[in-house]
Amino acid sequence: MINFGSGNTVIKSKLISRRMFVLNAAKAVVFFGIFGRLVSLQINEATKYKTLSDKNRFREWKLAPQRGIIRDYFDKEIASNEKVYQLHITPENSPNLETLFFRLKTILNLSDKRIFFLKRKIAKQKPWEPIIVSDNLTWSEFSRINLFLHELPGVEPIVSVARQYPDLSTAHLVGYVSQVSQKDLQKKQYLKEMSVGIAVGKTGLENKLDKDIIGKVGFQRYEVNAYGKRIKQIQVDSGESGKNYRTTIDLEVQKYATQVLEDKAASVCVMDIYNGDIITMASSPSYDPNAFVHGIDKKYWNELISNEKKPLNNKAIAGLYPPGSTIKIIVALSALENDVWNPKKYVNCGGLTELYGEKFHCWKKKGHGPMNMRSAIQRSCDVYFYEVARLLGVDRLSETAKKFGLGKKVLDGFIEERTGVVPSTAWKRKFIGKNWYLGETLHSGIGQGYFQSTPLQLCLMTAQIANGGFEIKPRVLANDNKNNLREYIKYKNENPNEPLPIDMLVSNFDLNPLFRNQENINFVKDAMFAATNEAGGTSFRSRFDDQKFMFAGKTGSSQVKRFTELQRELEIKQKDIVYKDRDHALFVAFAPYSDPKYAISVVVEHGGTGSGSAAPVAKKIIKKVLERDKFRESLKNLTGEEI
Amino acid sequence: MFQPRSIQSSTNFKDKVMMMDYVLIFSILLLGIISMFAMYSTDGGKFDYHTRSHILRFGIFFLMFLIISFFQIRFWYQTSTLLYLSFFILLLGVKYFGLTSSGSQRWLNFYFMNLQPSELMKIGLILFLAKYYHRISTQDVNKLKFLFLPVVALVAPVLLVVAQPDLGTSILIALGGVTVSWLAGVRVKFFAYASILFISLTPIAIAFLKPYQKARILTFLNPDRDPLGAGYQIIQSKIAIGSGGLFGKGFLNGSQSYLDYLPEKHTDFIFTLFSEEFGFVGSLFILILYSIIIYRLVNIGNITRSSFGKLYCYSFATAFFIYVAVNMGMVLGLLPIVGAPLPIMSYGGSSMMAIMLGLGIAMSCRIYKDTPVN
Predict the structure, then answer these.
(1) Coil, strand or helix: which one is B195?
(2) S-S: B365 plus which of A79, A310, A460, B309, CB 3.0-4.6 Å?
(3) Which residues of A touch B (CB under 8 A)?
(4) pLDDT at A7
(5) In terms of CA atoms, which chain B residue is nearest residue A51?
(6) What is the value of pTM for the model shown?
């Protein structure tokens, strides 16, 4: 090698070293690049990749919570949960969805449309998230599925719970639940974290209480490997079932009322006049809320919406009716409170009165003859009240009517509840854009014209008169708030000039009298007593002779279609005209007269006359309510002791 | 050829042992031990098949490395052509008798192990070209007739490996050959011509690529193209490394590998696993260990007097660097996934064998640094 020429070797070595230097520089650059990449991934973006790694690692399965139970005042369930058999598919576990659906189609009779819908849903969600194929299988379907289960990979038969409504009488009040819609998701923020397939309250209490009654969704978090196999359970949160609620409703009375109203388009409200507890709020005809829970079938739906008695409509709060003659107690009260009328003043009723050439008829064609305020309420003389209203004016009337609960929502949170209308000059200008005519005041004086009210509003109005003129806050949910209104009134009556004992003062600090002079309230109550219990009264036929059940009430009938002169001439009876044109029949009352406890309102759509069809209904229900009063009282005392 | 006499002839055995590069040996040993723990982790924290097999291989080939370190440098010089040719014959053998696994034919079955000759060819080509350029004078290097043989020696095995198909290894073999030629002084213009030729042939080559290879290249360009398919490996590897953070998830706690999100975790993605469990600090440590090994190899090249020794050590150091850089670049998402193992750490007998052979020859260059080769 020495003879090879050392000079050459040196030159070669130098060349190699020079070129190696370039390579070494390149190596340094590349390693520095790798170092930089490590810094960027493991230091700068570590958080991002940690999240991604956890996303890989953990999968969550949501556990639907159980909906809270709604009970009546006596703890009977009016909305409960029942066991249902469901069929879920986890798409990830099924090797071939097409054949699976084909098999299921023959076993369960699934429609092609449903299958299409399910496939679209599967495409939208994660492959390990189960999809509900059927949420309410019959026992035979469920057992058939279990029989073929080994041939149906991915299918899971599940025993779950779903909403059940044991009694149809509470359908309108409780409302119903159904599948979540896009609109629900937009409106109800709390649904965002819920699993799909959860039922959501759509109407009534179910909707009002939805947020708390729906419960808290739970989850199971598993560590899964790359093939989706669950390795171990990391965390379980079984969620919380929804809050249970006790309502003020007496299911017995509610059922009875619905039964009494059967085949009528009608509504009954009964209210405790001191604490505002709604004992009954029935609307007829009823419907089956259970039909909505698993998706209503088309036939039943069409049947419901084509029914002219509107079964889906909660008439107690969403039905608007002119109050008719029931408004007369407010007209009388307003006139007395405003000192525009002396109750002893006589007006001679000749069957009609005239104003600027327009005729205003009394319901009694022959007229009532000379009437004072008491007898005018007793016999519901229209002519008398035309005169009272004319002197009172619509604005003062409207003020009193609003004070007593008309023209505003009674309950809170019921989406279907309507406000109604209490007309005034300002109202007409704002909503109709025209000036008020005096003639319209006369119509308003007998509860016709623009007046619109719900049965519950009329019930509240009656209750607030019956309790001596104090404001109450109606409620459907029972709470144990001590309410001393009754004792307070009793104490006041017995010791008119003494200050209140401390405990009553404290518990009644928000007591709000609606009257200026309580004598006026008592006058109206007395006149209502006369209307029911003295001969000639409009509801005399529906009276109770037994002191225990004796009630005081006011009838009303409100025109749906104006009576023509010809019909008036021929003395056409209500029952002789077509159903849809008949007057609505109304009746408001409180009972028992000697020691009032409850107020009631009855509205029978197209019932003809208040005395003919509404008062008899009220009579039956008043009896039932008073019979059950002792049970309610005993429960009230019980909770009182517990506090 | 094998002349044990010559060992005694120059210096005694003790001096030779003293001549060994202990920093290099220690670094290799440390890396080997780390790799055993990494393998233990890929087996899910059990002393299982891969771990046992890896330890055995490391042990055997490390011993082999120490033994062949004492082979005369002349021995390697003289046998390099023979080695190259026998590796080439083995490669041909693969073509006809090779074992096929997951779509590619790479292995020969030798009862005690499945040999992957393409791995050995990585060293064989470097040896062969180092000898070739040692023999010709500097003036002749750029003459066309002297360029012919290196090109053939490089292209022939590369084509065989590409046909297996094994794109990754073929690129690594070629880069090794290119490195020797570059060091020997082949002009930049020839590399430029070769690049132009290569680029102009690329469209044709692409036509011959397997669909999965095309997908890998497209995926590299855009990993999100098919996140559950071809892009899966890159994405999961980046997630694993990134989620390791500064100090890692802890030994045996790498969720990405433990839960099988990480593909090929024993072989090509072993660095990912390590990086996930030991974080930035661990990764940096590995990077430094590799830097030390490469530095020591370059250092041997510096002190070796023969051109053959210099060419070999520099080329091997560079090739070793390329293996490391390609593998890390791959798992870090800087390069397409081509299938290149990480020297010493990755599971795989042939790769371990080739690397230890390469290291042993380098060590022999050190021990016989002043010994002429011919």
Answers:
(1) helix
(2) B309
(3) 1-2, 4, 8-9, 11-13, 15-17, 19-20, 23-24, 27, 30-31, 33-35, 37-39, 41-43, 45-46, 48-50, 52-53, 56-57, 223-227, 231
(4) 62
(5) B243
(6) 0.71
